Fold this sequence. Notes:
Strand content: under 5%
Order of helices and strands: HHH
Helix content: 55-70%
Region (Disordered): 21-106
Number of helices: 3
Largest sheet: none
Number of strands: 0
Structural class: mainly alpha
Amino acid sequence: xxxxxxxxxxxxxxxxxxxxxxxxxxxxxxxxxxxxxxxxxxxxxxxxxxxxxxxxxxxxxxxxxxxxxxxxxxxxxxxxxxxxxxxxxxxxxxxxxxxxxxxxxx
Length: 106
């Protein structure tokens, strides 16, 4: 027991001496001078066009499924047929009106 206490005391004194030496060495060290070498290099802009996908964090263009593409084409075709039908109806109506006017007596 006595030997154990003596060993612990010696270890504690050694730790205190090491701590005091470290503090003394830090106190003696001069403060670092700010030199131009320590400055951060200036920002150099990258050449070329920026990558918009990286800037806006987009995944790019969404891939369209076959079903979506078919639906879009069918919708466009229906609209075109409807517009064509409306145009044909207008022209037919105008022809009828023109033929009616030609038959009218003044």
